[in-house]
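INTERNAL TRANSFER SHEET
From: sequence group
To: structure group
Subject: Phytanoyl-CoA dioxygenase family protein

Please process the attached sequence and return the structure record in the designated field. Keep the field labels unchanged so the import script can parse them.
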Amino acid sequence: MKDLLDQPYYLSPQAIEFYQKNRFIKLKDVLDSETLAFYEQRITKKVAELNRQSKPMDSRDTYGKAFLQIFNLWREDPAIKKLVFSKRLAGIASALMQVEGVRIYHDQALYKEAGGGITPWHADQYYWPLSSDKTITAWIPLQEVKLEMGPLEFSAGSHQITEGRELSISDESEEKIRQKLRVTDFPHIVEPFALGEVSFHSGWVFHRAGANQTDKVRKVMTVIYMDKDMMLKEPENDNQRNDWETWCPGASIGQEIDTPLNPVLFP
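Return from structure group:
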């Protein structure tokens, strides 16, 4: 497994061009079934250990119904660290963004429970005190994701829209961004994910996920990367201030984010 995680993945010029235009891409056969089966067991076990969500589904707000969210598992399990620090994944991230290398911002498991609700329309970078748009998230399903499980949905090319960037994940973001996207020409892409398929999306592209209408948990691991030369910017909201303290502790505004929690993963 470690060999695959460190092997380069071939990206065609057409794939890089597609990402640059649309700011998302789905790639087939990034990981094999053996690797995914191993990490599904490790990550699921760790999510169960660390999950603090105790409210029943019908008493949670929209955000709480969307998913169980467990952060920085690379610090909790050395086996999971091998996946999160994979040169294969980080190399894809670097090539798609067309940067010299990438650091980790943080990882997170996103487990949408059976009967879990929608993940509203949003742009991730609302939460991040980062100085440029050179950010990308690898969305790694640990099993096949059929449409009824709530795969990630993208508004292709919507990183060009600035309206809605000030909204956190909420009922408001779902409604306002949906209304904005309805009157634009950006294609709405929602497809199932085959086993081994991984998507990559930028921090400012708008995306969402449907409800999990099955009796099985939708198990996904994510890794957020940033340009290795990324600088910390002055936070613009409380979420960005919290992210600074949590994921970039010790970083200084206007300086490169070079902290023990943000090592260079590629090259």
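Handover comment: DSSP finds eight helices and eleven strands in the chain. The mean pLDDT is 94.
Transfer complete.
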